[in-house]
């Protein structure tokens, strides 16, 4: 019997743009321009010239070369065309048949020979700057270039070395013997292995020298600010000044600063300068320069015997901080600087690297640091807890933040996998997986039809892997979203939130984390791979728990006597002092607010001595998802538009202070910060109500929120209820509104799972209302799906516009617990009617994209809604609950007309207990905390 050949499944080849990204990362800059062409075959004699279709041309700028694409119909095609041209020009191999090691070595010999040719020297290339500068050196040093410079400044040499020896990727030292061997074999390049210098064997032609010298820069001296990074973590980083003549070879100056007087004795003094050891930080995106690490591995035994053996060295010389930034093994003392030659100009370009820049680089590598820097608010901003509507989101998107985080830690791009659930009931049998490429490629064409389906919802999984493709972390939250993009962004944010929590607890071993720490966000961690990938982080990022605040900390009430006890939650030294008249326009959850602020560093008791760390004239964000640090949100939620306030807090993490300190960072590192505090000055400039509220106010009079309150008041008074519990009270909109009506209530209770908005209810007791009969008010911190005997048997319970913020299974659990254990006499539940959304959204212009495509399903009314039910779904849910727990139920609503399509805008179910109050069961079930309690007595 004959044998059959089996063709293995081959992974799809990466796109040209993906290959360029893999090789160059953020160094690849695409600039696309639109090309207008006149239309062909138009009617003659027309007064208005006819334009043809828009075409695009892309210029791709790389460290070595700049290329321009062909004219294409689409921007993406132009970018891919430019990437393909660059690949061909640089000789990057992309085919299935890889070159052998011998062929790669031959390619390296050819490239080294070309670099030292007459043809190469006048070319616009970063390496030619080094060659020109080397020709200005005096005596025996003339024309000498260190071997490491070739790997640092020539991407093709670097790529060939990596292909020959993969370990070059993480250790550029390994490229030196390869380059030295290639130079020896070239026949046109002279070497000195004892000193690792390379030069052209014969002199350059007079014409070449004349062409180079005519373009030489002026002899102006420049001063470059750099950072010295000691090898020992116990020693602080220090600022450093490099005074360099534009006609001087700056390598000699660096060597001297690293403790080597004669730069020609690199080998004997063990100095190694990898010019491309790192391209750091997107803070310098606008610059054409690169930030590089230069280091001196003292005592490093370097092998240059023309073999491919690994270089050996002592691990004690490893510079963890420099290695953390560069992704390379950096040894000994290191200098972090931004200067060198570019392919655009022969001048020596530079930018200062200050201590503030260094600390901001550290912040950028934290999971929440990218968001803080994208908003230019390191102290004030915080990583949000939820992905809100795109119109209200400020700063970089979560997916971009997660991708950048992985790149900065030298990991591959995150892998995203979205699943489309194609029916309204989210049946697990009707799924279609939509895979995306690692570099964020588009969804396949055949999957786009699923996006357009009216019943489609999406889930997203994210996987982070190591460079060896070991799984580090997976996130499968299971939440469903109407838009595929929202699913991707929300899952990315969950990963960032988990990582952020881990980075703030680096001193807690991972094995001590409880499973619930991961399950809450749907995260699964592979500890061995995770700890290996982030091994250096624990050594670099020290943790100071005293000043890192959790988002669910206690908010602040208005009463001064209660502030002393509650200040400890936010490290607030003095309570906020609010100035200005109350305009009546206060922020609430979902509001888009704009504030101005100033944050200063002051010494306690010395008010006149202060240093402004951070300020902003207009800072916009949406309330309710933690876009700012809790101290600020606690303050401005007590204010109204037009008011100002100031308060003092303890210092946050020192890293945040130093990264915002600017010019005073140097002095702060040498001074004790123990006696310093932060002074915040805040102005609440304006408040824009949430989109849902704006729609309701525009279309309903009175607004739906007020109509729901009036509906609840009606049942309170009809039933002569004396006690009320508001399930999911939030910031107390209902309880506060009840004070404006004559009611029979004597005791009101609010319960919510989030503490941060509860402080607003402290205003209930202080409001001077002659209509109020309330004698007691309590706030409970806990989940409404957990029974607490203190809420048993109330006259009336309300749950207005809450269940849609829960997962559907949680909403069902709440219904069962509320009617079987809390057992209120009357329970009022309201939720949006999804069938009414087209009317609301037709009158909203906040999302023009949906207006242009009516085939898209209607949005939910709020970004935090996990579902919205139709009338039939709501009726089925409520009727089933009532029949199982001996309650009757009637359906009403507010906004619209019940018997006219599409029914009420807000649908309401009123449950009434038909039997006597049953036994409460476990009387010891007291799971809620009491952050606030008030009694008229």
Write structural notes for this entry.
The chain is of the alpha+beta class. Helices cover 30% and strands 21% of the residues. An eight-stranded mixed sheet has the order 27-28-26-25-22-23-24-29, sandwiched between helices. Strands 7, 8, 9, 10 and 11 form a five-stranded antiparallel sheet that branches. A five-stranded antiparallel sheet has the order 13-12-14-15-16. It is elongated, with a radius of gyration of 33 Å. The model is unreliable at 1-12, 39-50, 264-288, 301-312, 424-454, 543-570, 763-768 and 845-856 (pLDDT under 50).
What key phrases describe this protein's structure?
alpha+beta; Arc Repressor Mutant, subunit A; 8-stranded mixed sheet; 5-stranded antiparallel sheet; 30% helix; 937 residues
Write the layout of secondary structure elements.
Blueprint: H1 16-24, E1 29-35, E2 55-61, E3 66-68, H2 75-90, H3 101-115, H4 126-135, E4 145-146, H5 147-153, H6 155-164, H7 175-186, E5 189-192, E6 197-200, H8 206-214, E7 221-229, E8 238-245, H9 250-257, H10 266-269, E9 291-296, H11 320-326, E10 333-340, E11 349-351, H12 355-364, H13 369-374, H14 398-408, E12 415-421, E13 431-435, H15 445-452, E14 457-465, E15 471-475, H16 484-503, H17 515-519, E16 523-525, H18 527-533, H19 537-540, H20 560-566, E17 572-579, E18 592-603, E19 606-622, H21 630-636, E20 644-649, H22 654-660, H23 665-670, E21 676-688, H24 691-699, H25 704-718, E22 723-727, H26 733-737, E23 747-752, H27 763-766, E24 776-781, E25 796-800, H28 808-822, E26 826-832, H29 837-842, H30 848-852, H31 871-884, E27 887-894, E28 906-913, E29 929-935
Parallel strand pairs: 22-23, 22-25, 23-24, 25-26
Antiparallel strand pairs: 1-2, 2-3, 4-6, 5-6, 7-8, 7-10, 9-10, 10-11, 12-13, 12-14, 14-15, 15-16, 17-20, 18-19, 18-21, 20-21, 24-29, 26-28, 27-28
Helix pairs in contact: 1-2, 3-6, 3-7, 5-6, 5-7, 12-22, 14-16, 28-31
């Amino acid at each position: 019997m004959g044998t059959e050949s089996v063709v293995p499944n081959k992974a799809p080849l990466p796109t040209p743009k993906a290959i360029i990204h893999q090789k160059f990362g953020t160094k690849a800059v695409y600039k696309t321009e639109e090309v207008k062409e006149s239309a062909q075959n138009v009617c003659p004699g027309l007064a208005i010239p006819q334009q043809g279709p828009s075409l695009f041309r892309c210029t791709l700028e790389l460290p070595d070369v700049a290329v321009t694409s062909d004219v294409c119909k689409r921007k993406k095609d132009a970018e891919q065309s430019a990437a393909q041209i660059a690949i061909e020009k640089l000789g990057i191999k992309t085919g299935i048949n890889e070159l052998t090691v011998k062929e790669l070595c031959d390619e390296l010999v050819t490239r080294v020979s070309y670099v030292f040719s007459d043809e190469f020297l006048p070319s616009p290339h970063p390496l030619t700057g080094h060659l020109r500068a080397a020709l200005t050196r005096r005596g025996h040093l003339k024309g000498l270039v260190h071997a490491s410079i070739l790997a640092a400044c020539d991407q093709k040499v670097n790529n060939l070395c990596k292909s020959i020896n993969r370990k070059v990727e993480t250790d550029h030292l390994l490229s030196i013997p390869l380059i030295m061997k290639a130079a020896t074999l070239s026949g046109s390049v002279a070497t000195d292995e004892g000193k690792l210098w390379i030069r052209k064997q014969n002199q350059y032609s007079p014409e070449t020298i004349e062409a180079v010298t005519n373009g030489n820069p002026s002899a102006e001296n420049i001063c470059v600010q750099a950072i010295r990074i000691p090898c020992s973590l116990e020693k602080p980083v220090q600022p450093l000044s490099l005074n360099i003549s534009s006609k001087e070879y700056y390598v000699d100056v660096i060597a001297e600063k690293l403790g080597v007087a004669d730069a020609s004795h690199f080998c004997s003094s063990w100095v190694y300068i990898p010019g491309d050891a790192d391209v750091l930080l997107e803070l310098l995106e606008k610059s054409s320069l690169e930030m590089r690490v230069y280091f001196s591995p003292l005592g490093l035994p370097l092998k240059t015997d023309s073999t491919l053996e690994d270089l050996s060295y002592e691990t004690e010389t490893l510079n963890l901080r420099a290695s953390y930034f560069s992704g390379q093994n950096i040894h000994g003392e290191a200098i972090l600087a931004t200067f060198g030659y570019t392919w655009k100009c022969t001048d020596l370009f530079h930018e200062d690297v200050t201590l503030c820049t260094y600390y901001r680089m550290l912040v950028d590598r934290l999971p929440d640091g990218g968001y803080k820097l994208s908003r230019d608010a390191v102290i004030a901003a915080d990583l949000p807890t939820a992905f809100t509507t795109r119109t209200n989101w400020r700063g970089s998107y979560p997916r971009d933040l997660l991708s950048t985080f992985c790149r900065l830690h030298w990991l591959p791009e995150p892998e995203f996998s979205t699943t489309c659930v194609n029916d309204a009931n989210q049946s697990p049998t009707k799924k279609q997986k939509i895979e995306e490429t690692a570099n964020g490629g588009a969804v396949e064409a055949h999957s786009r039809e699923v996006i357009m389906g009216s019943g489609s919802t999406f889930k997203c999984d994210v996987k982070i892997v190591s460079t060896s493709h070991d799984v580090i972390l997976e996130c499968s939250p299971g939440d469903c979203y109407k838009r595929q993009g929202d699913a991707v962004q929300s899952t990315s944010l969950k990963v960032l939130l988990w990582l952020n929590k881990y980075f703030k607890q680096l001193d807690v071993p991972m094995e001590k984390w409880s499973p619930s720490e991961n399950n809450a966000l749907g995260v699964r961690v592979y500890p061995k791979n995770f700890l290996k990938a982030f091994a250096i982080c624990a050594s670099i990022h020290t943790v100071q728990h005293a000043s890192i605040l959790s988002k669910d900390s206690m908010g602040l009430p208005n009463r001064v006597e209660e502030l002393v006890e509650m200040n400890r939650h936010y490290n607030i030294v003095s309570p906020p002092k609010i100035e200005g008249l109350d305009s009546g326009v206060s922020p609430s959850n979902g509001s888009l607010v704009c504030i101005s602020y100033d944050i200063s560093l002051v010494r306690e008791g010395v008010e006149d001595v202060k240093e402004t760390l951070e300020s902003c004239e207009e800072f916009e964000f949406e309330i309710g998802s933690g876009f700012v640090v809790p101290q600020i949100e606690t303050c401005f939620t007590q204010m109204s538009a037009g008011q100002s306030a100031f308060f003092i807090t303890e210092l946050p993490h020192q890293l945040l202070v130093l990264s915002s300190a600017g010019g005073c960072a140097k002095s702060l590192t040498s001074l004790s910060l123990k006696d310093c505090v932060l002074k915040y000055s805040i102005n609440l400039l304006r408040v824009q109500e949430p989109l849902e509220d704006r729609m309701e106010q525009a279309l309903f009079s009175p607004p739906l929120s007020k109509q729901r309150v009036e509906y609840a008041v009606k049942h309170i008074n009809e039933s002569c209820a004396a006690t009320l519990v508001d399930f999911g009270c939030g910031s107390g909109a209902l309880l506060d509104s009840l004070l404006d009506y004559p009611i029979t209530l004597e005791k009101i209770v609010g319960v919510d799972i989030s503490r941060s908005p509860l402080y607003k209810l402290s205003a209930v007791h202080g409001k001077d209302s002659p209509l109020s009969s309330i004698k007691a008010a309590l706030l409970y911190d806990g989940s409404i799906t957990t029974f607490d005997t203190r809420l048993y048997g109330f006259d009336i319970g309300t749950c207005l516009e809450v269940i849609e913020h829960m997962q559907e299974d949680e909403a069902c659990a709440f219904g069962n617990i509320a009617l079987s254990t809390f057992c209120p006499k009357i329970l009022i539940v309201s939720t949006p009617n999804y069938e009414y959304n087209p009317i609301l959204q037709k009158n909203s212009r906040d999302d023009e994209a949906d207006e242009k495509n009516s085939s898209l399903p209607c949005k939910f009314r709020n970004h935090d809604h996990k579902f919205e039910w139709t009338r039939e779904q709501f009726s089925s849910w409520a009727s089933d609950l009532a029949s199982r727990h001996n309650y009757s139920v009637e359906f009403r609503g507010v906004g619209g007309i019940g018997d006219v399509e599409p029914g009420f805008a807000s649908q309401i179910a009123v449950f009434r207990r038909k039997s006597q109050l049953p036994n409460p069961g476990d009387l010891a079930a007291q799971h809620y905390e009491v952050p606030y309690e008030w009694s008229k007595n």
